[in-house]
Structures are given as structure tokens and as C-alpha cells.
Amino acid sequence: MNGLPLSLPRVDSTDSLFADPLAFLARARAQCGDVFVLREHGPIFSRASDCSGVIAVFGEHRLRQVLTETDTFALPMSAAAKMALPKNLVNLNRGLHSMREPEHGRHKRLLTGTANRALFDAHRSGMQTDLSRFCEMLNGDGRISVVSRMRELTAKLASRLFLGPQCEEDAELTFLLSAYFTLRREASSPNAHDPLQYRDALIGAGRQLDRALRARIRRYRKAPAGECAGLLQRLATAGQPGSPALSEDEIVGHANVMFVSSTEPVAISLAWLLLVLSQLPDLRRALRAESAARASSPASPCGAPLLERVINETLRLLTPNALMVRATTQAASLQGVALPARCEIVVCPFLVHREANAFARPHAFLPSRWETARPSPYEYFPFGAGGHFCAGRNLALSLIGEVLSTLLSRFDFVLDIEQFIDWRIHIMLMPKGDPTLTAHPVDERRDTPSPKWRGPVAELFHFAPGLS
């Protein structure tokens, strides 16, 4: 089979796709149904010059197949491969997404068993110290560019999880990890007119990062990991003495990918959460009350249900992974639809999260829905689903909850002034530009004025009536 099935409906043109991909896909789905052709030949989001065409896919059963059959529906070619970067730089991005079974399953079990709540709890005290320093900075100057500040904060916290107590002396490694990711993000963006312009800079930064990671791994392997060890040391010493569970190359690839997954998605999620909450003073007050109740009864088993609901609802409506791409490695049948090899498949969690059969009033911001909502992993998947769901998902959620709870208990975050807020997809769905928030020290005796947002972000969803 060489082409896409003639039975599939086609969109007339994709000329306006990149101007607003989410609205474009919503209109196309309304016109064409759950499976339709976006492009007859060649790629849109992937980089494969031999791509046999592009389709968009919706529907829980189809998504389940695409996201679970990872050997057939694989991740597309990486930017590193497309730019013919040196082998050691290609390896920097060789995490779970690059693997097939049974290797994928073995590595995933090891990573999810290492990047877990126990790792988070081992470093919680140190992260609280970092958060206290951040709050001291806010006391001095509460006006922040929210995306930039959340990136700085999450990089600091992730470096503690990643490196353990050595994070202060290993600040250079954190810098290299962040710098390499920033360069790769720009080169990987569909908006990059000439990704090759980043090639020399990527090679320079990547080689430094590769050397630094390998030096740490070799040092860590000389002694067993203690309770306070960071993720990198735990991976380096996993397995039996003299028989490590992972090779040096494997650790380098996983370490880089795990650091990225603990920083950028967390930072963008926190930025969206603070922006959303800036519009809802009563909800901010309720979250502070919940946090205070937890602090006064730390042994309570109740957790923070309101905080969890707010996080879930924000990740539903403003999910960082608004678009996902897969490619067929061979001719395949997708729920009865015959697809050729090298077919690009577009999945849109942004729209999937707005399915009325899974979420009543799907366009409303309504945290209370999570009191009863139990969507399947293919109806709600802000961290991916199936074989390639993010191995750092629980770590990321723990970070988001810890940061948000700490910040909201001490400060009331509002927009600096009424602001026009737009969005963009730059690998992730994120605020366009860098909106400004002001952090006012909490004073329950008075209400903090909350300037309103306007602009395209207000068109992505609406606040449920009665929510403020």
C-alpha cells in the first residue's frame, strides 16, 4: 500500500493550520469526523522526507491503539537525527520514546520505580529551603514574569531531585542541561525556519553536557547510593555490584530526558495555574484554607483534594502537550482503516480533553467535576498515555502540587494590570510572551484587587458560573 485510503475524508487546505492549529483541527473534525486526511503526501509536524501522508485521529478506541502499539505507531524522527548530529548527541535524546519492546518495558519499570514519591520525599526538605528562598525574593519584589520565573524555580527544584545534596556544587551541570534543552526546543519547533542554524551551537552544548554527565556517572559508580542520592546517582548505581542495570549511554539518554520532563512541563503548568487562579480570588482563598488545615493536621489522610482538582482541571483545559505526533513503522490497520508505512498521525489532547461524553460542560473550568469524573487514560492524558506515557508523571505532579501549595499559602497572585494574554504552541501549549503577575503577601483581612485578563486565552475556555 503506497497511499492513504481514498475512503477517508480530506480537508480542503492546510494553509491556515499553523496560524491556529487547535481551531483548525476542531473545524476539520466537525466537518470530516474522527479520522481524516490533513496532507496527501509529505509531513506536517514530523521531519520525514519520505512521509506517505498525514492523518488526524480521534476517538477513544483509535487513540488507545495508536498510543499502546508503540512498535507500530512510533515517535517520529528526532531533530537530532534530522540534523545528522553526532552519535553522542543523538544519544542525549534517546530516552524511552526511542525504544521498542522488550527493552522499553524493562527500562520503563526501572525509571518509574526510581523517579517515584520516595525520591521526592527524600528531597522535600531541601526543596522547601529552595522555595523559602524564592518566597524571600518575592517579598523583596513581588512583580514577576511568570513563565521565566517558573522556569528558573523548577530548574532549581529539579536539580535537587536530579543531583541530590550536590546540586549546589554541580550548578554547572544544571546550567548545561537547561541550555541544551533550550537550544533543542528552538531547533525542534515547527516554527523554526532553518533548524540547521542551531546545529553548531547544539553540538557545542551537547558535547559539554555529554562529558559532564559521564563524569558524574563514573564518579557515582564508585560508591553505593545513600538515601539522599539524587536520581542520576540512583540510576548510575542501579543493579548488582559489577553488573549495572543500565549502561553509561543509557543513563546519559534517560537522565537528560528525565530532567527535561521534570522542568519545562512543570514550569508551563505552573504558569498556567497561577494565571488561571489570578482570576479566581475565592478559589485562591479556599486553597489557602485547605493548605492551612493540612499544616495544622499533618497526619490527616485527606490530602489536598481541592488542590488536586484545580491541577487536574487546568491540565485538562490547558494541557501542555496539546498536540502529539506518531508515525507508522509499517503498513497497519487502525480500527479497520488501512494505513501505509511512514504515515504521520496527529493526536490532539487539547480537543480530546473537551469531549462531552467524558466531561459534561467540557468548555467550562469546573474543578468540582473531579469529585466524580473518572476518565479513561485515553480521554484524559496530560502526560501522554499507553506505552509512551511520561515516566516522570508522578514526580511532575508532586512538584506542581508542592510549589503551588507553598506559593499560594504565602502570596496572593494577581495580574499586575489588566492584560491581553495570548497563547502559542512552541512544542508545548504555553502563554505567548511572558505575562506579569504580582505576588502580594497574604492578608486575609482584605481582598487583593484582581485585574482581569482578555484576549485569545479567554476564548479557550470559560469559568463556570458561580466560580470566582
UniProtKB/TrEMBL annotation:
Cofactor(s) essential for the protein: heme
Domain of life of the native organism: Bacteria
Positions annotated to bind heme: C390
Keyword annotations of the record: Heme, Iron, Metal-binding, Monooxygenase, Oxidoreductase
EC number: 1.14.-.-
GO MF term set: heme binding; iron ion binding; monooxygenase activity; oxidoreductase activity, acting on paired donors, with incorporation or reduction of molecular oxygen
Coiled coil: none
Alphabetical list of InterPro entries matching this protein: Cyt_P450 (IPR001128), Cyt_P450_CS (IPR017972), Cyt_P450_E_grp-IV (IPR002403), Cyt_P450_sf (IPR036396), Cytochrome_P450_monoxygenase (IPR050121)
Xref: PANTHER family: CYTOCHROME P450, CYTOCHROME P450 12A4, MITOCHONDRIAL-RELATED
Family affiliation: Belongs to the cytochrome P450 family.
Name of this chain's protein: Cytochrome P450 family protein
Organism the protein comes from: Burkholderia pseudomallei 1710a
